[in-house]
Amino acid sequence: MEKALLEIENPVHKSVMVKEAMEFLCPRPDGIYVDATLGLGGHTEAIFKISGYQTRVIGFDVDDESLSFSKKRLSSFAGRVVFVNKNFSDIQNVLESLGIYEVDGVVADLGMSSFHLEKSGRGFSFLRDEPLDMRMDSRLRFTAYDLVNEMDEEEISKILKIYGEEKWAKRIAREILNYRRETPIKSSIQLADIVLNAIPRQFHPKNIHPATRTFQALRIAVNNELENLERFLEDAVRFLKIGGRIVVISFHSLEDRLVKNTFKRLSSPCVCPPALPGCGCGRKSTLKILTPSPRIPGVGEILNNPRARSAKLRAGEKI
Ligand SMILES: C[S@@+](CC[C@H](N)C(=O)[O-])C[C@H]1O[C@@H](n2cnc3c(N)ncnc32)[C@H](O)[C@@H]1O
């Protein structure tokens, strides 16, 4: 299995923690799996490579360009993948519309892919001169351009603080407002330069580009990432068979915290005091946590794929 899984890479995107994800997912020969973030198809390809001929995958992706790529890549497994161009937060409706009421496992490899950063031309990277879009789903109404050019200073600052944990949020927001009084902020490089100017040089972080947190914050806001993730996690666990597993790979602390806390909540029974008005939920624990602390990639993977360095994998089993 190991050699096959190490080959799960392609020129556009190297899949992250595939071996660990498959160890936790343990795909069965005739199971039904959800790949909530199909992307370039790496994790789904791994599921097919290590399971039998009857496994099926329901693969979600909001990005139609990524879906066209994975359709080509997975063409040899045609008929065994249902490609769904929808948000994973819609998992309940999608599965029910397919007549599926329980699944053997769910994998989610969150965020954007290297395709988005390097080839999509949508302004995800502060190193490229591209229009400020940042939508993974082209059907969304607002782009990063709309946010930085239309929101007021306080709203921008709040987004940078909450979604980017950026301690220079106020200064960056003020600099954005000053700049756009002269001319609209149209490109990713313009925005990156604004951030570089806003943070005093002696406080530029050493290990990341100073604009990293601003770009993360805007991307999260544009794509409504945390709300979608929260809704997805609850519903995904509900659809797991007893013994079915959920594996989630996240790339920043806000996502990881949300996964950790949701797993924790689902793994503990209701502790509301009996006298609490309105409570009588009687909620039982539905998840056994398989990763008391998150798994991280090995040094070899990080050297081979620097994008993996911030990955954290958490897994749980339906009980
Ligand atoms: C890190 S990539 C997945 C890569 C994939 N596992 C592979 O190995 O090729 C994440 C993908 O999830 C998609 N995505 C992000 N958020 C989503 C959401 N809420 N619903 C559906 N797809 C989403 C992105 O468009 C992107 O293609």
Give the SSE order as H and E letters.
HHEHEHEHEHHHHHHHEHEHE
Listed once per kind, the bound small molecules are: S-adenosylmethionine
Task: Identify the CATH architecture of the largest domain.
Answer: 3-Layer(aba) Sandwich
Counting structural domains, the number is 2
Which CATH class of the largest domain applies here? Alpha Beta
Strand order of the largest sheet: 3-2-1-4-5-7-6
Oligomer state equals: single chain
CATH homology-level superfamily of the largest domain: Vaccinia Virus protein VP39
Question: How many strands in all?
Answer: 7
Span from first to last CA? 27 Å
The unreliable regions are 1-8
Instruction: Report strand %.
Output: 5-15%
- How many alpha or pi helices? 14
Main sheet overview: 7 strands, mixed
| Class of secondary structure makeup | alpha/beta
Helix share of residues? 40-55%
Q: What sort of overall outline do the alpha carbons produce when their principal axes are compared?
A: globular
Mean pLDDT: 93
Query: Per CATH, what is the topology of the largest domain?
Result: Rossmann fold
Radius of gyration: 21 Å
